[in-house]
TrEMBL record:
UniProt name for this protein: Manganese transporter NRAMP
GO biological process: iron ion transmembrane transport
InterPro entries: NRAMP_fam
Residues spanning the membrane: 65-88, 109-128, 134-160, 172-190, 271-291, 370-388, 408-427, 439-460, 480-500
GO cellular component: plasma membrane
Keywords associated with the record: Membrane, Transmembrane, Transmembrane helix, Transport
Primary location class: membrane
Biased composition (Basic and acidic residues): 540-551
Membrane topology summary: Multi-pass membrane protein
Region (Disordered): 532-551
Keyword Repeat carried by entry: no
GO MF, any single term: manganese ion transmembrane transporter activity
Length: 551
């Protein structure tokens, strides 16, 4: 009789058990053949760095400050590479994803708090995907927004189909969608003939990069930089990478096999994140070169789509000629739809990872996706219905504000994934002496974690003020600042709780490993003693083993 499965089951096994260790990798083959076998997880991770939430921040940054914020995109991408490398390494070496590792080192109550916090962060990113997907459907097929929002729920059927075809094919589909997005923006930027010298010069940060003036369209270089950083590094990517890095088969008894997995996973991740960097850089270049300076008054997806078909906003004759055919705006909408579908896959897998890791619950991927998407659809539908009687511009602005304001949850959740990740990969107890972070990775890691945490919390008052709209009063500003500071104090208190629990958990692990070592040593000595012909022979063999260990 076939085993009957419940919709929600207890889960405390390997991370993403259905795909864990299912992909074969070659041994003693050439570099490129081996790299091909490991390629895929990095693409799923890179998707989070080019999702719809990144688009308006990069394009608006280019419109307002030319190439000044290119350096912010570069720095964010380098930090992302470092954090994703550590996440993949944690999963491969410890055989636990980040959620499982945190839960194993912390109390049950803290685990539940962190799970809820991370769920909110995933829902925040899902709101951006709902908005991006619905707008893409509206722009491409003229489907009313309310109906388009409901259609985005139907992507659960796509996910259900993908789960039947195998993980390698899912990775291939994601790579193809990334290439579509990359092609669209390469094509549009190539037509615009940008000033590449100024673009490359913008990769070097200056004192103006994080300045609080000038203010253009209500944005300063600092707020523009914070927007790009906030939209780039997302907590769910760290949980996801620590899980899907375990899809490749590895012999954990063989240190060389583990080292190969870590090495090629890093290559895969860095190559794919480099592609994400180019997409985000091209978006900023679009803001500078495709449109006339200050021409884009509406930074929402609607406004960008219209600007790509409006010859008065474009910067040169070639773009104007192509725009008349409607291909520029159509390609933009296609790329937006591809971005939303990519995020569907990664968001669902991330949600499953944190649910299994933090609260040991598992549900089918299609059900997980359906629940998350329906919850994310609610605020979007409310926003659409509240603005249905107003002008289309008001509706567009409201949706854009909802997408940007939803990202506030990322500022809360990010430190609680970065800090434990750094602590565990720094630890020889967790990783062993060979795989713990080296001195330079440790130094850059701490700099990145502290800097990102500071910038996220520093930008929190501005994010809370954004909830009040453009015409905020002095009283509302004061109220927003009070709310922000209460939240900042709450985040810092929760961080202290996490640090204390992580330290206690690490000490428990040290004690446990020491006890296991003593027990195994006594058992080994007893076996040697029984096999030795004399006490002198036993002493000789024990001394030889001790000297070998010291060497």
């Amino acid at each position: 009789m076939a085993e009957k499965h419940k919709l929600i089951e207890y889960a405390n096994g390997p991370s993403l058990q259905e795909i864990n260790g299912t992909v074969d990798v070659p041994k003693d083959k050439g570099f490129f053949k081996t790299l091909l076998a490991y390629s895929g997880p990095g693409a799923l991770v890179a998707v989070g760095y080019m999702d719809p939430g990144n688009w308006s921040t990069s394009i608006t940054g280019g419109q307002n400050f030319q190439y000044l914020l290119m350096s912010v995109i570069l720095m964010s991408s380098l930090i992302a590479m470092l954090l994703q490398y550590m996440a993949a390494k944690l999963g491969i070496v410890s055989k636990m994803d980040l959620a499982q590792a945190i839960r194993a080192r912390t109390s049950k109550s803290l685990g539940i708090v962190l799970w809820i916090l991370t769920e909110f962060a995933i829902m925040a990113t899902d709101i951006a995907e709902v908005i991006g997907g619905a707008i893409a459907l509206y722009l491409l097929f003229n489907i009313p927004l309310v109906i388009a929002v409901f259609i985005t729920v139907g992507d659960v059927l796509v996910l259900l189909l993908l789960t039947k075809i195998g993980f390698r094919k899912i990775e291939a589909i994601v790579v193809c969608l990334i290439l579509v997005i990359l092609f669209v923006f390469v094509y549009q930027v190539a037509l615009s003939d940008p000033n590449w010298g100024a673009a490359f010069a913008g990769l070097v940060p200056t004192g103006k990069t994080f300045a609080t003036h000038p203010s253009i369209g209500g944005q300063t270089p600092l707020t523009g930089a914070l927007g790009i950083i906030g939209a780039t590094v997302m907590p769910h990517n760290l949980y996801l990478h620590s899980a899907i890095s375990q899809t490749r088969k590895v012999n954990h008894a063989d240190e060389k096999s583990v080292a190969q997995n870590v090495r090629f996973s890093a290559w895969d991740s860095n190559i794919q994140l480099t592609a994400a960097f180019f997409v985000n850089a091209l978006l900023l270049v679009m803001g500078v070169a495709v449109f006339k300076s200050g021409a884009v008054k509406d930074p929402s997806f609607f406004g960008l789509y219209q600007a790509l078909s409006d010859t008065s906003t474009l910067s040169n004759g070639v773009l104007i000629a192509v725009a008349k055919s409607g291909i520029l705006s159509t390609l933009f909408a296609v790329a937006l739809l591809a971005s939303g579908q990519n995020s569907t896959i990664t968001g669902t897998l991330s949600g499953q990872v944190i649910m299994e890791g933090f609260v040991h619950m598992r549900m089918p991927l299609w059900l997980r996706r359906l629940v998350t998407r329906l919850l994310s659809v609610i605020p979007v539908l409310i926003c659409v219905m509240l603005t249905s009687g107003k002008s289309s511009i008001d509706e567009h602005v409201a949706l854009n504000d909802l997408m940007n304001n939803s990202q506030v949850f990322l500022a809360f959740a990010l430190p609680f994934s970065m800090l434990p990740l750094l602590l565990m990969t720094d630890s020889a107890t967790e990783m062993g002496n060979k795989f713990k972070n080296g001195a330079w990775i440790k130094g850059f890691g701490w700099f990145s974690v502290i800097a990102l945490t500071f910038l996220n919390l520093y930008g929190l008052p501005g994010q809370i003020q954004a909830f009040y709209g453009d015409k905020i009063t002095a009283a509302q500003t004061t109220q927003a600042n009070i709310i922000a500071w209460v939240l900042i104090i709450g985040v810092l208190a929760l961080l202290v709780w996490t640090l204390v629990d992580m330290h206690k958990g690490n000490e428990r692990l040290k004690t446990s490993l020491a006890a296991e070592h003593v027990d195994s040593t006594y058992a080994h000595l007893a076996k040697m003693s029984a096999a030795a012909d004399s006490e002198e022979e036993f002493d000789k063999e024990a001394t030889a083993e001790r000297n070998a260990e010291q060497r």
